[in-house]
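Need residues for this backbone.
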Protein backbone atom coordinates (compact mmCIF):
# COMPACT_ATOMS: atom_id res chain seq x y z
CA UNK A 1 0.00 0.00 0.00
CA UNK A 2 1.35 3.42 -0.98
CA UNK A 3 2.19 6.01 1.68
CA UNK A 4 -0.55 8.62 1.33
CA UNK A 5 -1.27 10.53 4.53
CA UNK A 6 -2.05 14.00 3.23
CA UNK A 7 -3.39 15.29 -0.07
CA UNK A 8 -3.97 19.00 -0.49
CA UNK A 9 -6.36 20.47 -3.03
CA UNK A 10 -5.09 23.40 -5.07
CA UNK A 11 -7.66 25.13 -7.31
CA UNK A 12 -6.45 24.59 -10.85
CA UNK A 13 -7.50 28.04 -12.01
CA UNK A 14 -5.50 29.89 -9.31
CA UNK A 15 -1.96 30.47 -10.54
CA UNK A 16 -1.02 32.17 -7.27
CA UNK A 17 -2.10 29.10 -5.28
CA UNK A 18 -0.21 26.77 -7.60
CA UNK A 19 2.87 28.92 -7.00
CA UNK A 20 2.42 28.60 -3.23
CA UNK A 21 2.02 24.84 -3.52
CA UNK A 22 5.74 24.55 -4.24
CA UNK A 23 6.34 24.68 -0.47
CA UNK A 24 3.48 22.46 0.71
CA UNK A 25 4.60 19.44 2.82
CA UNK A 26 1.76 17.15 1.70
CA UNK A 27 2.39 13.65 0.39
CA UNK A 28 0.40 14.54 -2.72
CA UNK A 29 -0.51 17.85 -4.33
CA UNK A 30 -3.94 17.50 -5.94
CA UNK A 31 -4.51 20.07 -8.69
CA UNK A 32 -8.28 20.42 -8.74
CA UNK A 33 -10.26 20.81 -11.94
CA UNK A 34 -13.57 19.90 -10.31
CA UNK A 35 -15.48 21.46 -7.40
CA UNK A 36 -13.20 24.41 -6.66
CA UNK A 37 -13.26 25.60 -10.28
CA UNK A 38 -16.35 27.41 -11.66
CA UNK A 39 -17.64 26.30 -15.09
CA UNK A 40 -16.31 29.37 -16.89
CA UNK A 41 -12.81 28.66 -15.54
CA UNK A 42 -12.54 24.97 -16.49
CA UNK A 43 -10.46 25.52 -19.62
CA UNK A 44 -8.16 27.97 -17.84
CA UNK A 45 -7.66 25.46 -15.03
CA UNK A 46 -6.83 22.75 -17.53
CA UNK A 47 -4.22 24.93 -19.19
CA UNK A 48 -2.65 25.89 -15.87
CA UNK A 49 -2.52 22.21 -14.88
CA UNK A 50 -0.57 21.47 -18.06
CA UNK A 51 1.95 24.11 -16.99
CA UNK A 52 2.17 23.35 -13.28
CA UNK A 53 2.21 19.55 -13.06
CA UNK A 54 5.77 19.40 -14.51
CA UNK A 55 6.91 22.37 -12.41
CA UNK A 56 5.73 20.80 -9.16
CA UNK A 57 7.10 17.39 -10.08
CA UNK A 58 10.51 18.97 -10.81
CA UNK A 59 10.55 20.23 -7.22
CA UNK A 60 10.10 16.70 -5.89
CA UNK A 61 6.33 16.65 -5.37
CA UNK A 62 3.97 13.81 -6.24
CA UNK A 63 1.28 15.50 -8.30
CA UNK A 64 -2.20 14.28 -9.14
CA UNK A 65 -5.11 16.01 -10.84
CA UNK A 66 -8.76 15.69 -9.84
CA UNK A 67 -10.81 15.53 -13.01
CA UNK A 68 -14.52 16.06 -13.42
CA UNK A 69 -16.92 13.12 -13.36
CA UNK A 70 -17.72 11.26 -16.53
CA UNK A 71 -21.27 12.62 -16.71
CA UNK A 72 -19.95 16.17 -17.22
CA UNK A 73 -18.41 15.34 -20.59
CA UNK A 74 -15.15 17.00 -19.51
CA UNK A 75 -13.17 13.97 -18.37
CA UNK A 76 -11.62 12.86 -21.64
CA UNK A 77 -10.37 16.33 -22.60
CA UNK A 78 -8.95 16.84 -19.12
CA UNK A 79 -7.12 13.52 -19.19
CA UNK A 80 -5.79 14.25 -22.67
CA UNK A 81 -4.43 17.56 -21.41
CA UNK A 82 -2.69 16.38 -18.23
CA UNK A 83 -1.43 12.84 -18.88
CA UNK A 84 2.34 12.91 -19.23
CA UNK A 85 5.55 11.67 -17.63
CA UNK A 86 5.19 13.99 -14.61
CA UNK A 87 1.67 12.99 -13.58
CA UNK A 88 1.47 10.48 -10.71
CA UNK A 89 -2.26 9.94 -10.98
CA UNK A 90 -5.75 11.30 -11.29
CA UNK A 91 -8.64 11.49 -8.88
CA UNK A 92 -12.04 10.78 -10.41
CA UNK A 93 -14.83 12.88 -8.98
CA UNK A 94 -18.17 11.21 -8.23
CA UNK A 95 -17.28 7.71 -9.40
CA UNK A 96 -20.49 5.70 -9.18
CA UNK A 97 -19.60 2.26 -10.48
CA UNK A 98 -16.70 -0.05 -11.36
CA UNK A 99 -17.43 0.68 -15.01
CA UNK A 100 -16.68 4.38 -14.43
CA UNK A 101 -13.21 3.38 -13.23
CA UNK A 102 -12.70 0.94 -16.10
CA UNK A 103 -13.72 3.63 -18.62
CA UNK A 104 -11.08 5.97 -17.20
CA UNK A 105 -8.56 3.12 -17.14
CA UNK A 106 -9.10 2.55 -20.85
CA UNK A 107 -8.68 6.26 -21.60
CA UNK A 108 -5.46 6.36 -19.60
CA UNK A 109 -4.08 3.28 -21.34
CA UNK A 110 -4.70 4.87 -24.73
CA UNK A 111 -3.11 8.15 -23.68
CA UNK A 112 -0.09 6.46 -22.08
CA UNK A 113 0.48 4.38 -25.19
CA UNK A 114 0.28 7.48 -27.41
CA UNK A 115 2.75 9.33 -25.16
CA UNK A 116 5.19 6.43 -24.95
CA UNK A 117 4.67 6.05 -21.20
CA UNK A 118 4.77 2.86 -19.20
CA UNK A 119 1.26 1.42 -19.14
CA UNK A 120 -0.27 1.78 -15.70
CA UNK A 121 1.94 4.72 -14.68
CA UNK A 122 -1.01 7.02 -14.00
CA UNK A 123 -2.85 5.85 -10.88
CA UNK A 124 -6.50 6.42 -9.97
CA UNK A 125 -8.20 7.56 -6.76
CA UNK A 126 -12.00 7.36 -7.21
CA UNK A 127 -14.32 9.40 -4.98
CA UNK A 128 -17.16 7.67 -3.12
CA UNK A 129 -19.71 10.46 -2.85
CA UNK A 130 -23.24 9.07 -2.95
CA UNK A 131 -25.33 6.11 -1.85
CA UNK A 132 -24.84 4.14 -5.06
CA UNK A 133 -21.07 4.49 -4.90
CA UNK A 134 -21.02 3.54 -1.22
CA UNK A 135 -22.89 0.29 -1.88
CA UNK A 136 -20.30 -0.60 -4.54
CA UNK A 137 -17.22 0.81 -2.79
CA UNK A 138 -15.26 -2.46 -2.78
CA UNK A 139 -16.07 -3.13 -6.45
CA UNK A 140 -14.95 0.39 -7.32
CA UNK A 141 -11.73 -0.06 -5.34
CA UNK A 142 -10.93 -3.29 -7.21
CA UNK A 143 -12.08 -2.22 -10.68
CA UNK A 144 -8.53 -1.52 -11.91
CA UNK A 145 -4.97 -2.22 -10.86
CA UNK A 146 -4.43 1.53 -11.20
CA UNK A 147 -6.53 2.24 -8.11
CA UNK A 148 -4.22 3.11 -5.20
CA UNK A 149 -6.89 4.48 -2.90
CA UNK A 150 -10.53 5.47 -2.58
CA UNK A 151 -11.70 8.78 -1.14
CA UNK A 152 -14.85 9.56 0.81
CA UNK A 153 -16.64 12.81 0.01
CA UNK A 154 -18.76 13.79 2.99
CA UNK A 155 -20.32 16.94 1.55
CA UNK A 156 -21.70 15.33 -1.61
CA UNK A 157 -22.70 12.19 0.29
CA UNK A 158 -24.85 14.10 2.79
CA UNK A 159 -26.36 16.11 -0.06
CA UNK A 160 -27.27 12.89 -1.88
CA UNK A 161 -28.81 11.43 1.29
CA UNK A 162 -30.68 14.60 2.22
CA UNK A 163 -28.83 14.88 5.53
CA UNK A 164 -27.73 17.93 7.46
CA UNK A 165 -23.92 18.17 7.58
CA UNK A 166 -22.86 18.79 11.18
CA UNK A 167 -19.55 19.70 12.80
CA UNK A 168 -19.56 16.53 14.90
CA UNK A 169 -20.08 14.25 11.91
CA UNK A 170 -22.38 11.59 13.38
CA UNK A 171 -24.26 11.49 10.08
CA UNK A 172 -21.18 10.25 8.20
CA UNK A 173 -19.94 7.69 10.73
CA UNK A 174 -21.42 4.75 8.83
CA UNK A 175 -20.24 5.72 5.32
CA UNK A 176 -16.80 6.57 6.64
CA UNK A 177 -16.47 3.16 8.25
CA UNK A 178 -17.81 1.48 5.11
CA UNK A 179 -15.26 3.20 2.86
CA UNK A 180 -12.40 2.37 5.24
CA UNK A 181 -13.40 -1.31 5.35
CA UNK A 182 -13.82 -1.50 1.56
CA UNK A 183 -10.40 0.05 1.02
CA UNK A 184 -8.77 -2.31 3.47
CA UNK A 185 -10.40 -5.32 1.83
CA UNK A 186 -9.06 -4.10 -1.52
CA UNK A 187 -5.62 -3.36 -0.01
CA UNK A 188 -5.66 0.26 -1.12
CA UNK A 189 -5.43 3.53 0.80
CA UNK A 190 -8.56 4.98 2.45
CA UNK A 191 -8.67 8.77 2.23
CA UNK A 192 -11.05 10.81 4.33
CA UNK A 193 -13.19 13.77 3.36
CA UNK A 194 -11.74 17.26 3.93
CA UNK A 195 -12.51 19.08 7.16
CA UNK A 196 -14.09 22.29 5.92
CA UNK A 197 -13.59 24.42 9.07
CA UNK A 198 -10.06 25.25 8.04
CA UNK A 199 -9.56 27.85 10.79
CA UNK A 200 -10.28 25.28 13.52
CA UNK A 201 -7.11 23.21 14.10
CA UNK A 202 -8.50 21.49 17.20
CA UNK A 203 -11.58 20.43 15.29
CA UNK A 204 -9.41 19.10 12.47
CA UNK A 205 -7.25 17.16 14.92
CA UNK A 206 -10.32 15.53 16.47
CA UNK A 207 -11.92 14.82 13.08
CA UNK A 208 -8.74 13.30 11.63
CA UNK A 209 -8.20 11.30 14.81
CA UNK A 210 -11.67 9.81 14.51
CA UNK A 211 -10.98 8.94 10.87
CA UNK A 212 -7.77 7.16 11.81
CA UNK A 213 -9.61 5.16 14.48
CA UNK A 214 -12.09 4.06 11.82
CA UNK A 215 -9.24 2.76 9.67
CA UNK A 216 -8.51 5.63 7.30
CA UNK A 217 -4.90 5.95 6.23
CA UNK A 218 -4.98 9.58 5.11
CA UNK A 219 -7.08 12.69 4.62
CA UNK A 220 -7.58 15.51 2.15
CA UNK A 221 -6.78 19.12 3.06
CA UNK A 222 -8.39 22.23 1.63
CA UNK A 223 -5.89 24.64 3.19
CA UNK A 224 -2.12 24.39 3.62
CA UNK A 225 -2.45 25.04 7.37
CA UNK A 226 -4.16 21.65 7.67
CA UNK A 227 -1.33 19.59 6.21
CA UNK A 228 0.95 19.28 9.23
CA UNK A 229 -1.91 18.22 11.51
CA UNK A 230 -3.01 15.58 9.01
CA UNK A 231 0.53 14.27 8.58
CA UNK A 232 0.96 14.09 12.35
CA UNK A 233 -2.38 12.35 12.90
CA UNK A 234 -1.77 9.65 10.31
CA UNK A 235 1.81 9.00 11.43
CA UNK A 236 2.70 6.80 14.41
CA UNK A 237 3.63 8.84 17.47
CA UNK A 238 6.93 8.32 19.28
CA UNK A 239 4.99 6.62 22.09
CA UNK A 240 3.29 4.24 19.65
CA UNK A 241 6.61 3.34 18.03
CA UNK A 242 8.27 2.74 21.40
CA UNK A 243 5.43 0.48 22.53
CA UNK A 244 5.43 -1.42 19.23
CA UNK A 245 9.13 -2.14 19.68
CA UNK A 246 8.45 -3.45 23.18
CA UNK A 247 5.75 -5.72 21.73
CA UNK A 248 8.16 -7.10 19.11
CA UNK A 249 10.87 -7.67 21.71
CA UNK A 250 8.45 -9.49 24.02
CA UNK A 251 7.19 -11.62 21.15
CA UNK A 252 10.67 -12.54 19.99
CA UNK A 253 11.60 -13.57 23.51
CA UNK A 254 8.46 -15.71 23.82
CA UNK A 255 9.13 -17.37 20.46
CA UNK A 256 12.68 -18.20 21.50
CA UNK A 257 11.19 -20.01 24.50
CA UNK A 258 8.75 -21.96 22.36
CA UNK A 259 5.65 -20.02 23.46
CA UNK A 260 2.86 -18.82 21.16
CA UNK A 261 2.02 -15.73 23.18
CA UNK A 262 3.79 -13.22 25.40
CA UNK A 263 3.04 -11.08 28.45
CA UNK A 264 3.83 -7.37 28.31
CA UNK A 265 2.93 -5.27 31.34
CA UNK A 266 0.08 -7.64 32.18
CA UNK A 267 -1.31 -7.64 28.63
CA UNK A 268 -1.35 -10.74 26.44
CA UNK A 269 0.58 -10.41 23.18
CA UNK A 270 -0.59 -12.84 20.50
CA UNK A 271 -0.48 -13.00 16.70
CA UNK A 272 -2.91 -10.12 15.91
CA UNK A 273 -1.12 -7.83 18.37
CA UNK A 274 2.33 -8.57 16.95
CA UNK A 275 1.02 -8.02 13.41
CA UNK A 276 -0.33 -4.60 14.38
CA UNK A 277 3.00 -3.71 15.97
CA UNK A 278 4.95 -4.84 12.91
CA UNK A 279 2.64 -2.91 10.56
CA UNK A 280 2.99 0.23 12.66
CA UNK A 281 6.78 -0.03 12.65
CA UNK A 282 6.76 -0.57 8.88
CA UNK A 283 4.65 2.58 8.46
CA UNK A 284 7.01 4.55 10.68
CA UNK A 285 9.95 3.36 8.60
CA UNK A 286 8.23 4.35 5.35
CA UNK A 287 7.58 7.83 6.72
CA UNK A 288 11.19 8.12 7.90
CA UNK A 289 12.43 7.07 4.45
CA UNK A 290 10.19 9.68 2.80
CA UNK A 291 11.41 12.44 5.10
CA UNK A 292 15.02 11.47 4.39
CA UNK A 293 14.39 11.50 0.64
CA UNK A 294 12.70 14.91 0.85
CA UNK A 295 15.67 16.58 2.54
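Answer:
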Amino acid sequence: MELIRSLVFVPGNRANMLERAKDFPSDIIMVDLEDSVPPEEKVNARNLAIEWVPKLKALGHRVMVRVNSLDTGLTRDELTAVVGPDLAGISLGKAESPEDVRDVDRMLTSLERAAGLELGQVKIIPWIENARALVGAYQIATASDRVVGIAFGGEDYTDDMGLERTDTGEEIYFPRATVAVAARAARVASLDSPYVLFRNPDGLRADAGQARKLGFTGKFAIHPAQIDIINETFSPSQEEVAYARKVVDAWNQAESQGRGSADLDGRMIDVPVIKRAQNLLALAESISDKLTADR
